[in-house]
Automatic annotation (TrEMBL):
It comes from Campylobacter jejuni. This is Autotransporter domain-containing protein. The active site is at residues 43, 80, 292. The keyword Signal applies. GO terms for molecular function: serine-type endopeptidase activity. Belongs to the peptidase S8 family. One of its GO terms (biological process) is proteolysis. Keywords: Hydrolase, Protease, Serine protease, Signal. Residues 775-1041 form the Autotransporter domain.
Amino acid sequence: MKKFFCLTLVCKLFALSEFELHHIDKVHKLGYSGDTIIIGVADDAFNQDHISLKDKILKSTYPTDTAGKQLIPDLKKSTHGSHVAGIAVGAKIGDSKPYGVAYGAKFYGAGVFPNGSYTQIPDIYNFFKDVSIINNSWGINFYPYFNLKASNSGLVDCTQTNQGTSYNICNTPLEYVMKADKVANDMMRLSKDKGVLNVFAAGNEGILSPALHAILPSYDESLRAWLAVGALDANEITLESDGTLIIKSQGLADFSNGFKGATNFSLVAAGVNINNVDSSTNDKFTKKSGTSMAAPMVSGTAALVKQNFPFLDGKQIADILLSTANKNYKAPKFTVKQVTDGTNQPKFLIVYISQDPPRIEDEIKRDLKQLYNGIQVQVNGQWIDYSDYIWDNRDSAQSQKLNTSTISSINGVVRVEKEELFGQGILDAQKALKGLSILDANRLSDQDVLKYEQEPNTAYYTINTAGYDAEFSNDISQRKWDESTHLSSAINKPTHLANLNIGLSKEGEGILIISGQNTYKGATLIKQGELKLKGKVKNNAYVEQKAILSGNGIVGQNLNNKGIVRPGNEDLNDLTVQGTYTQEGVDSKLQLDFGNYKNSKLIAKTYDIKSGNLEYIPLPKYYILNKPVKINLGDLEKSLSSFNHVLIQNTYALNFDFVLSDDLVSINKTLIKPNLKPNAYEIPNTSLGNALRQLRSRADLSQTYQEFFASLDNGIDVKTKLNRIEGSGYLSTFSNHNQSNLMQNNMLFTLHPLNINNFAQNNNILLASTYLPRIFSNEEYFWHLTPSYKYYKDKDFSGQKTGANISLGENFSSGFLAYALSLSSAKFNFNNGSDLKSYNMDLLLNYNHDLDFIKILSGLGIGVGFNTLNRFVVEQPIEGKYKTLQTSAQLGVTKDIILGQDFIFNPLMYFTHSFFYQEDFKENKSPFAKNYESLKHHSINANLGFNLAKNIEQDDYQASFSTFVIFEKRIYGRTLENKASFVDFPIAFIQKYKLKDNILSQGFNSEFLYKNNVFWQFMLMNRFSHNAYELHLMSSVGKRF
């Protein structure tokens, strides 16, 4: 019999897309994409070259043959897995192309279906052991709840015969999986051992209960990290203005299996005409339908939940998805399931939802005709109403199972409750990212039952935040144990949860914020970390030792504190206890925040203070020194004497003292006075701390200064703030002008015949070379041009300096004279956020004299600098411009010691005197801008070292290669000292900077002189001192004449 269905397309103006139905679009706008999350996908194959998946699949595995060769899938035929993976994690290429729910996540892909000779299934357990979620859009056509399987004869009993032995898989599904289904068994082990969430498609056969793999948790109640997913058609669902979803009869996919026997771990998602990856191409997309498409909607959303709450395990992710599933929907009166029973003949099951079917067949037929409204089907050349076709091909297998004890006995017509079609509801990603919504006893175990202090037996839902901070903003209710939703034959079934209320237990470090109006009836236990209550809990709350309860919410009954209770959210709000506040334990604390005019309060109906401390904590505000702060305790004031101690927490810069009563002995319990600490704002090597204390004590500070000191007083980034105020960068870059540094390089130049460019480095003063006269014996004069580069790295700053100089020299019979003009620029960036730019010009002169038995080295230099200092302290940059003058003189001795034919060794000893002058200058007006007085500084350095050179003479050129090591000791002028004051206030202070005492220099030279009297040189030098390093690079080109 041939059948052709006539389809009519109707424009659904108010229908929803799948992302709109599940609020996935809203979650994406909030920035959630599943980034950093890895999921697993078990399916047929994956096209890793497709534009949606090429950067998504981290690794893949497929079945192998007996020789170990892995299957290479045919992606034109095996298209299912790529489509599924694309729905879950497909890349977002653009808004016009389909993309995944968790488009920022990645995945591991496992092919789990044998193919021909490739019969060896991968080791799924080890392959997926590092993922958080596994999508399973696959299953087998066995339905344990009904004891049915699909066969050529239709739906029949699950009994099978193997080698003459009969057995029933549906009676023992767990045994079947453990013995005969390695993939499913590995999935079970991963859920139990690793807490991995397995998401299973419920199946596409129109059966009212999930297929075998999806329903496994009904038979083993320790299998909580497991979900069964049914399919909806988003095009058949509309949204009312009040937020209610209206589900049409076709909104429940006719192929989707239901959830009889599985309602506690099931939910539904869009799975009809889902557009995603077409693996037969590398850039196209195609539409597919099935619970296989609905499951990755859930898996992708699970990845978003994991991103937002990284501390959750698979079971808890499932709890959130189930508890937040949308229950605000209106189910249709009835729906029709198309049953695939293993035959080629479609069967249909007419399902009335949460209401008894009509007892009269004509009423049911009338419902069908209204639903399909004239749609016809061609059967054997004859057109008949589709509703009649359904009536004539009703499924009897399921109705016989379900109608044995109901009022309906009409074949192919049944009643089910809406939870048996929708499970816990419709996937809602937006609500899921707000945390738990229901504490469900049906998903807890006997191990969760606790008799806590005076509380009755309660089942506690435990959240361990594991060091993370998170917020649950949904209203959290409870659902008690419902025996009717559990199988009596299930293993690991709890036996002590009946009639118990459910409480919440917070464990682990980190902060959990609860901001909903919570109605769960068990107690709230804060065992570790912090619970910040911004909403309400209905019953008692307990704070254990070292745990913290804070917030401005409401405790509906009593609050018992053995740890820390801190009302408010550090915002002077109050925490309300509608019963008794009890505090006990020597380490227990009640912490009350205060500001200048208000404090947070613990407002309770009654107080029972047995021990512990009351502690006042100042909020990070600006406090007027010596002005008392009045504390309002309310009725708690009557219990002050019951605390062991009443304490005040001081800040970085402030002490807070109780104000004494008139007798100067007893404490006025409601007044606190802020005072400045004697050593507040202290900075080494400067009197700035004293200046800041004077400034802080003034009563005329502007709002900007007050806000800055409020932050500083409370220890917020103190070191950085003080360093920025100090702004001593202009002192720490003294090496930019340090003549001992400059002349050391120049002295090295004079030791070699071709080392002419050295006197340009760092405005160096040149010293005469003893070897130069021999090289220049035929020419009296020379010139050269020298570009240079210098890099600084200090513990306080880094910087660079570039320059160039032009030099002239003259050779005498007993000496050498050279002149130079040098230009350079430098920039220094300081760790405190400031910077210094400098432009320098230097005139240099050097002369050496050969006394035969020894050589005298000498030099002079003078230079000016133009500097711009930029600092940032509070609101705007602070700029100051100033000029500097530097002069230097050098005197020393060396001697040539000939080693063999080509080597010359020069021991070195010399002294350098430097004078540095900095003019007085004023920074532009801004908070903490300064006036700087002029600075004069003398420095004397002693140097000792050696230079070793090898000289080479060829027909066309002469060359010299050398290396040197010099130790420099500062013997006078070790500390720079300058006086400054604030522009806004006449408060002066001294700034000091300790210069480097010991410096070690080491470097290399290479020099070449050619027949045409052109010469070239390159020099590299490293300078090392305490917490500092400098690199010098120079290259010269010149000519003698």
